[in-house]
Amino acid sequence: MSGPPSEKLERLPESLVAPLDDGACEHLPGLRLPALSLPATGGPPVDLSTLSGLTVLYAYPRTGQPDQPLPTDWDIIPGARGCTPQSCAFRDHHAELAAAGARVFGLSTQDTAYQSEAVGRLHLPFPLLSDAELSFAHALNLPTFEVDGLTLLRRVTLIIRDGVIRKVFYPVFPPDQNAAQVLAWLAATSV
């Protein structure tokens, strides 16, 4: 792929391997979220279990930085590539999601300082939450994978109402279409 480094992160390669549904999220619908405060970009920690109304939480492995190499074999790990396009899609559909009554959060295992760079560079109008200690992931038994010594979240999107998971999108592919899939589901369903 040619173009500046940031452009490479914002587009998906054509030959991405689609992840398979391994059943790792079948236990999530109907679960109440754990009472955990997660560090947030641009604000105080957030305890998702206490939020009333509709929340969209998209968990992703990690956003890349234009001046840094991607993890080893990133493009051939099913479901790994696409965090920046997914975040940009949620940014681009943010007003529609808000109009549907949903607040949006992204979640990764990156620390808040790393996430803050992504929020600024990508102009995200919503906070990213850090699960660097994997406390949220372990409490919900979210699927993870390892690369280059890092434990990363597999891509999953949760629709939450009043602290209870109502809908799970897993596996998420292609990631740049996830926000549109969420909007379509919200339009067709009364949550």
Describe the protein.
The protein is α/β, with parallel strands linked by helices and 191 residues long. The protein has a single domain (27-188), classed as Glutaredoxin (3-Layer(aba) Sandwich). The protein contains six helices and nine strands; from the N terminus they run αβββααβαβαββββα. It has helices at 5-10, 83-92, 94-99, 112-122, 135-140, 178-188, and strands spanning 37-40, 43-47, 54-59, 102-108, 128-130, 144-147, 150-153, 156-161, 164-169. The chain has a five-stranded mixed sheet. Strand 4, helix 4 (112-122) and strand 5 (128-130) form a beta-alpha-beta unit.
Map the helices and strands:
Layout: H1 5-10, E1 37-40, E2 43-47, E3 54-59, H2 83-92, H3 94-99, E4 102-108, H4 112-122, E5 128-130, H5 135-140, E6 144-147, E7 150-153, E8 156-161, E9 164-169, H6 178-188
Parallel strand pairs: 3-4, 4-5
Antiparallel strand pairs: 1-2, 3-8, 6-7, 8-9
Entry summary:
The chain starts with a helix and ends with a helix.
